[in-house]
Design a protein that fits this description.
This protein has about 375 residues and is an alpha/beta fold. It is built from ten helices and twelve strands. It has one domain: Alpha-Beta Barrel (TIM Barrel), CATH 3.20.20.70.
């Protein structure tokens, strides 16, 4: 029996398989509002057969956007726009819907990737960014403003309010973005955090702000909402955030009621040297999984082959696998994975007739009386 197509619990949320669609920025919002693109994009992916989909990094305040095209949830107007998308999708697809709440920190005020991805100048509509320390991400970029106590409190409250809006919208779960060089990761890494107060210096101090926000969000949302974290396990730079520190962070999160940990890596430094290849981050998920008790671990990163995904689970290296660019390229990846593994996958009945010869039991619930 395929583990990839077996059920699993993420805290209060039951998933009917272990395939997750990772959050992927679309840079297709106007002033942070969800657009028709989101309806088409997310609607398509929820028909993939994946058990869960995590909506892209969604800014909790305006200056927390990566670009001027990034999704936001800092007002009720933004909540209404996202809710309209979700309410349209819900009756059609059974995929569990999560949202990733984020703050870009010093990586904000950037052009869209297809417009260079570089920092936007003030003359061209850029904005002041904030970070744990006034250290630029790139050597040729203007430095961010170092956050003071009032700024930290404002951002914590922004995460709490956004989480409450996500709950009211009807999301099944929330993922806090603590990876890829964005604000929480900036606090964790000594490369970007050189504070001398209680939020800088030791590993314990550098973890303090992200953990305090997690605690505040956990206390603010109902228990039936799953709450997890995406974590960069290491910086891939000498002197940066390490896997050993991630192990401690994971244990702390589990003790605080974290329902899942989504393990990625890198993003905080332009000096990173990442050995890209199939499943290049799986060993990081495996290492962290060995240091927690029961918290489910999601592995992500060039997991594109169904047999590869199945082996990761069978060998106990992770509890779920997430796909990002691979599922953009092949939005029916879970169907093909089910066919390769002799499993069944959910699909809308309008698509049942597409089953290829030899796979007449591919779709769960399919009937053969078709004219």
């Amino acid at each position: 029996m395929s583990m990839l197509f077996s059920e699993i619990q993420l805290g209060p949320v039951k998933l009917n398989n272990r395939i997750v669609i990772a959050p992927m920025c679309q840079y297709s919002s106007e002033n942070g509002l969800a657009s028709p693109w989101h309806l088409i994009h997310l609607g398509n992916l929820t028909l993939s057969g994946a058990a869960a989909l995590i909506v892209e990094a969604t800014a909790v305040e305006k200056i927390g956007r990566i670009s001027d095209g990034c999704l936001g949830l800092w007002s009720d107007q933004h909540a209404t726009a996202i809710k309209n998308v979700i309410d349209t999708i819900r009756p059609i697809a059974s995929t569990k819907l999560f949202i990733q709440l984020s703050h870009a920190g010093r990586k904000g005020s950037s052009h869209k990737p297809w417009e260079s991805g570089k920092l936007i100048s003030f003359e061209n509509g850029g904005w002041e960014t904030v970070a744990p320390s006034a250290i630029s991400h790139g050597a040729d970029e203007r430095p961010p403003i170092e956050l003071d106590a009032a700024g930290l409190e404002r951002i914590k409250e922004a995460f709490v309010l956004a989480a409450k809006r996500a709950t009211n919208i009807g999301f099944d779960g929330i993922e806090l973005h603590c990876a890829h060089g964005y604000l929480f990761h900036q606090f964790l890494s000594p490369l970007s955090n050189q504070r001398t107060d209680e939020f800088g210096g030791s590993s314990e101090n550098r973890m303090r702000f992200p953990l305090s926000v997690f605690e505040a969000v956990r206390a603010a949302i109902p228990q039936h909402i799953a709450l997890g974290v995406r974590l960069s396990a290491c910086d891939w730079v000498e002197g940066g955030w390490t896997v050993a520190e991630s192990n401690i962070m994971a244990q702390k999160l589990e003790d605080m009621g974290c329902d899942f940990l989504h393990v990625s890596s890198g993003g905080v430094s332009t000096q990173q040297k990442i050995p890209i290849g199939p499943g290049y981050q799986v060993h990081l998920a495996q290492e962290i999984k060995s240091h927690v008790k029961h918290m489910p671990i999601i592995s992500v990163g060039l997991i594109n082959d169904p047999l590869q995904a199945e082996a990761i689970l069978q060998e106990g290296k992770a509890d779920l696998v997430a796909l990002a660019r691979g599922i953009l390229y092949n939005p029916r990846w879970p169907w093909h994975a089910a066919a390769a593994l002799g499993a069944q996958v959910e699909a809308p009945p309008q698509y049942w007739r597409c089953q290829p010869a030899g796979h007449t039991k591919l779709f769960d619930g399919v009937r053969s009386n078709q004219r």
